[in-house]
Specification:
This protein has 1 helix and 5 strands. It is mainly β. The longest helix is centred in the middle third of the chain and has 7 residues.
Length: 72
Amino acid sequence: MRDDDTIALSINGKDEKLPAGTTLVDFLQQKGLPIPAIVVEYNKDVLPKGKYDGIVLRDGDNLEIIQVIGGG
């Protein structure tokens, strides 16, 4: 893969490369993350779940992904 075909970003503090054009939903699904049970901070803003679809990840983005686990 050429560098033009990838983006570099930080996900939970780790550097990662993804194919250019990857959406947030694509990434979450590829990782098998349960969308209803996670919270995503995208470039220091907490995103409402309804916005996940419209986010195309870009070079230099910063994601923090937290999985919410219920307990009692």
